[in-house]
Design a protein that fits this description.
This protein has helices at residues 12-25, 50-59, 63-76, 104-113, 134-141, 147-152, 223-264, 270-275, 282-293, 299-303, 308-321, 329-335, 348-371, 375-379, 382-392, 409-421; strands at residues 28-33, 36-39, 120-122, 156-160, 171-172, 175-176, 183-190, 197-205, 216-217. By secondary structure, it is of the alpha+beta class. It has three domains: 6-47 and 239-421, Lipoxygenase-1, Domain 5 (Lipoxygenase-1, domain 5, Up-down Bundle); 48-99, no CATH class; 102-236, Nuclear Transport Factor 2, Chain: A (Roll), CATH 3.10.450.60. The strands form three sheets. Strands 3-4-7-8-9 form a five-stranded antiparallel β-sheet. Strand 1 and strand 2 form a beta hairpin. The chain is globular, with a radius of gyration of 24 Å. The two termini are 26 Å apart. The mean pLDDT is 95. Bound molecules: fe (ii) ion.
């Protein structure tokens, strides 16, 4: 398929007819997961291929027998030791983190190279009502430094989850579920060598929603108290990651781009061709998530801490925080105060992410410059301008931070790079 901008396509009517049909096949629905726009009905061409279905099923083949073995194991000898949970993975591979998850260094490292690296940020001042004092700090870190000095030396990091506050907790099999509302303070301890050091937990406030009355724990507390405090952080982090960073910030925010691209850019439009592999199977996967995972009695209802309604409210809240300009990767790192390698030498998510971002940005730039050589190439591309307008529209993609008209190539490069990167 030879790529053409619509204004220079020798067969403009063919693409016009194709788009008329696509607009019938790809419709926005704003009610299923209101106010998040999703696909109304997944078109046939978006379904998983036979090959992908086979691979996906094969990857899950051990789940059911493993579950059966775990249930039998628990029936014969009910779990009472923490270590016994490790025996629940008989057929599935044991994750490496199982060996050291109880250590403080592993707990801190998960903030920097774990599943949810966007929850932590560097702070220049202590939040009001934090309640963690210099006494806590010196108990954890030692008396050579102080809380105030650590702040001045830009070495303090805060982990908190304010968007989880409204979740009171649902029930599972008639048992009440709980969601802790922790806040955790961390300290970057350099070891004197250039770029050497590690992140250390200073203290955890267990119930941040209780203000200054929150219970505070440090590594100096009895081993089990401290381990439970860390577990509360992991529970909050798991809920935040699964529904927020994962579902809202990838699945939910990308669907509008896929739908608008199918509706407004002909298949031989250079941008449609560029984005096609990145959208592969997404609409169907999202639809499976909506119809299987987010239903009453489904995995979100059962495994997440909140009631289904609370979890869905959290998804919407997180989705509404996303915008295409905020999620430009270097901008995002900066907004979390996590962007300077000299201040935080060890942050794999940032450093690996920047390598990928830069490579994609260069590729997208080179590619788009082949087709858009002058400002007219942009302004005369009526498909692209319709695409932008529909992405912003309330009856369309509702994408925040998106311009209604693409005026410059740099603007376009940035938007397309965010989509490819996400
Ligand atoms: Fe996913």
């Amino acid at each position: 398929m030879k790529p053409y901008l619509p204004q220079v396509d020798p067969n403009p009517n063919i693409r016009k007819d194709e788009l008329v049909k696509n607009r019938e096949d790809y419709k926005f629905n704003h009610d299923y997961l209101a106010p998040i726009p999703v696909i109304d009905k997944v078109p046939h061409q978006e379904l998983f291929s036979a090959e992908y279905t086979a691979k996906r099923l094969a990857s899950m083949a051990n789940l059911a027998p493993n579950m059966l073995a775990a249930k039998a194991r628990n029936f014969l000898d009910p779990l009472d030791e923490l270590e016994e949970y490790e025996e629940l993975l008989t057929l599935l591979p044991k994750p490496a983190v199982m060996n050291n998850y109880k250590t403080d260094s592993c707990f801190a490292e998960q903030r920097l190279s774990g599943a949810n690296p966007l929850a932590i940020r560097r702070i220049d001042s202590l939040p009001e009502k934090l309640g963690i004092t210099n006494a806590h700090f010196q108990k954890s870190v030692g008396t050579e430094s102080s809380l105030e000095a650590a702040l001045k030396e830009v070495k303090l990091y805060l982990l908190d989850y304010p968007t989880l506050f409204d979740i009171k907790g649902g029930t599972s099999q008639n048992v009440r579920k709980y969601l802790p509302k922790p806040q955790a303070l961390f300290y970057w301890q350099s070891n004197g060598l250039a770029n050497g050091g590690s992140l250390r937990p200073v203290a955890i406030k267990l119930n941040n929603d209780a203000g200054t009355d929150g219970l505070i724990y440090t590594p100096d507390d009895p081993y089990l108290d401290w381990l439970l405090a860390k577990t509360c952080v992991q529970i909050a982090d798991g809920n935040h990651q699964e529904l927020g960073s994962h579902f809202a910030y990838t699945h939910a925010v990308m669907a509008p781009f896929c739908i608008a691209t199918a509706r407004q850019l002909a298949a031989n439009h250079p941008i449609a061709l560029l984005l096609k592999p990145h959208f592969r199977f997404m609409l169907f996967d999202n639809d499976l998530g909506r119809t299987h995972f987010l239903q009453p009695g489904g995995p979100v209802d059962e495994f997440m801490a909140g009631s289904l309604e609370e979890s869905l409210t959290f998804v919407v809240k997180t989705y509404q925080e996303w915008s295409v300009d905020k999620f430009v990767f270097p901008t995002l790192m900066k907004s979390q105060n996590m962007d300077v390698p000299e201040v935080l030498p060890h942050f794999p998510f940032r450093d690996d992410g920047m390598l990928i971002w830069d490579a994609m940005h260069k590729f997208v730039t080179d590619y788009l410059q082949l087709y858009y050589k002058t400002p007219q190439d942009l302004s005369e591309d009526y498909e692209l301008q319709n695409w932008a307008r529909e992405l912003v529209a309330q009856d369309g993609g509702r994408v925040k931070g998106m311009p209604e008209r693409i005026e410059t190539i740099d603007q376009l490069i940035q938007i397309i790079t965010v989509v490819v990167f996400t």
